[in-house]
Amino acid sequence: MNGVHDMGGMHGMGPIKADKSEPVFHAPWEGRAYGVTRAMGGWRLWNLDATRFQRELIAPVEYFRMSYYERWITGLVELMLKNNLVTRAEIETGRPDEGAAVRTPAFTADKVPGFISKGVPARRDVPATASFRVGQRVRARNINPVGHTRLPRYARGKVGTVDRDHGVFVFPDTNALFLGEKPQHVYSVRFEARELWGEQARPRDTVYIDLWDDYLAPA
Amino acid sequence: MTTSRRDLLTAALTAAGAVAVPDLTNAQHSDHDHDHGHDHDHQAVPSDPALRVKALESLLVAKGLVDRAAVDALIDTYEHKIGPRNGARVVARAWSDPDYKRRLLTGADAALAELGYGGLQGEHMVVVENTAEVHNLVVCTLCSCYPWPVLGLPPVWYKSAPYRSRSVIDPRGVLREFGLEIGENVEVRVWDSTAELRYLVLPERPAGSESLDEEALAALVTRDAMIGVAKIASPAQGGPA
Q1: Is the confidence metric ipTM above 0.95 for this complex?
Q2: For residue range B70-92, what is the model confidence (pLDDT) as tens digits?
Q3: Which pairs from A67-73 meet CB under 8 Å and 24+ separation?
Q4: pLDDT tens readout for residues A76-113
């Protein structure tokens, strides 16, 4: 979707406020928000792409007003509601509905080290035809899906060169909507900064963007 | 297939339209007066994210959906165990061992695993080298993708709109904000982390560090240099060693 999350190339966002001695979490609630979101992922009722899409669906004015972990919590609540893990009334009251089932947590503390060290690989060991080869000129397709996509607006329609083939990965556009993983090649595509931004860019500068097979056409 | 895709998408977007993004402006006024029974949309959503998260966690624990000890363990991991010191060790090893550096640049996953690093949000890693000809800068314009196993959780500025929006269109301006001027003869190469590859910058080894051992070298390496918004200061110039 052409949402405000797709920020590459936008102006007017102000200066970068780097804090030299920033804590990992700025307040205890940020850590709790992080941990609860991760722990709920342990039910495996949604996936990373669906999680990202859910945050992208936050209305623009709210997206900008919220801090990072507020977006996480907002997305989490919506995913839990969609999956009937909680009710709207429970979110509002903070208490389980009368007679609500009590489950046994899927993601327990003993599973944390293994989960973190293994992660959630998105590469798939399945055969998939690579439509493009390293060194080939490609054009990012001009698509504007209303669903989730990882093809940023600033690259659409632009011509670059395949720099490397990363192998076969889950395709976010379908995976986010639970329409299948549709595994396909992902390439690192080198774009000249001037192809993306015109003459204001420096002639030597480049932007490398990781793009799925379905995002590309021969140039 | 087309129909089912459309239906699912419609369902997703309908749900999105119904998202009860809490109206915090209202909630801030109604939070403590408990006079909200008439206004279903705005009631009982604590204005303060701290209160909201606390209530949410309590609910999920009460429903048996979340193990509080798992949340504690996740927080402890990123507060105390996984952070930029991991990446600094990798950089120091690469500076000290040319064979390791070659393995790191050609097959980062295996090379990082040699030092025990990998996993969540770093399942598929790429390491890019800064040289006299190329300066690398890492961003995620679409969200906040970042190599957690080697750098920990990203700082706020990395996740912020100013950095995400400008890094690709004006990387030299962004670097200047961090106090870094890159020469016109150098290629500034920006890596937009749009897929599940995660990028770590291997900074240039500073002058004056020739005699340092790996541990001392690691102490010179900063998180910002491994994102690409800084260079490593020479130890003589007051680096952290």
Answers
A1: yes
A2: 999 999 999 999 999 999 999 99
A3: A67/B49, A68/B144, A68/B156, A68/B159, A69/A29, A69/A30, A69/A33, A69/A34, A69/B49, A69/B53, A70/A33, A70/B49, A72/A33, A72/A34, A72/A37, A73/A33, A73/A36, A73/A37, A73/B49, A73/B52, A73/B53, A73/B56
A4: 999 999 999 999 999 999 999 999 999 999 999 999 99
Q: Residue A141 carries which side chain, given as an amino acid letter?
A: R
The boundaries of the domain holding residue A58 are 28-118
A95: domain CATH number is: 1.10.472.20
Do A60 and A102 reside in the same domain of the chain? yes
CA angle, A74 then A75 then A80, to 5°: 100
Check B21 against A186: CB less than 8 A apart: no
**Residues whose CB falls within 8 Å of the CB of residue A110, separated by 6 or more in sequence, listed in order:** none
The CATH number of the domain holding residue A197 is: 2.30.30.50
Amino acid at B178: F
Taking only residues 123 to 182 of chain B, the set having a beta carbon closer than 8 angstroms to any beta carbon of chain A reads 123-124, 126, 141-144, 152-153, 155-157, 159-169, 171-172, 174, 177-178
Residue A149 belongs to some domain of the structure: yes
Of the candidates A155, A21, A20, the residue with the CA atom closest to the CA atom of residue B229: A20
Decide if B144 contacts B160 (C-beta within 8 A). no
A176 located within any domain: yes
Task: Provide the shortest C-alpha distance from residue A196 to chain B (in Å).
Answer: 8
Into which CATH architecture does domain B82-237 fall?
Alpha-Beta Complex (3.90)
Q: Contact, A16 vs B163, CB < 8 A? A: yes
Domain stops at, among A118, A145, A178: A118
| Whether residue A156 is found in the same domain as residue A105 | no
Distance of CA B118 to the CA centre of its chain: 15
Rounded Cα distance, A69 and A72, in Å: 5
Angle between helices A68-82 and B49-62 (to 10 degrees): 30
Please indicate whether residue B239 or residue B69 has the higher confidence score (pLDDT).
B69
Which residue, of A90, A118, A146, is where some domain finishes?
A: A118
Whether B143 is a known active-site residue: answer: yes
User: Which of A5, A32, A154 lies at the smallest CB-CB distance from B143?
Assistant: A5
Considering its fold, how many domains does chain A have in total? Answer: 2
Same domain flag for A161 and A85: no
Crossing angle for the helix pair A28-41 and B68-76, nearest 10 degrees?
Answer: 120
Is residue A131 situated within a structural domain? no
| A57 and A110 fall within a common domain | yes
| pTM given for the model | 0.89
Domain spans of chain B? 23-66, 82-237
Rounded to an integer, what distance in angstroms lies between the CA atom of residue A150 and that of residue A173?
Answer: 7
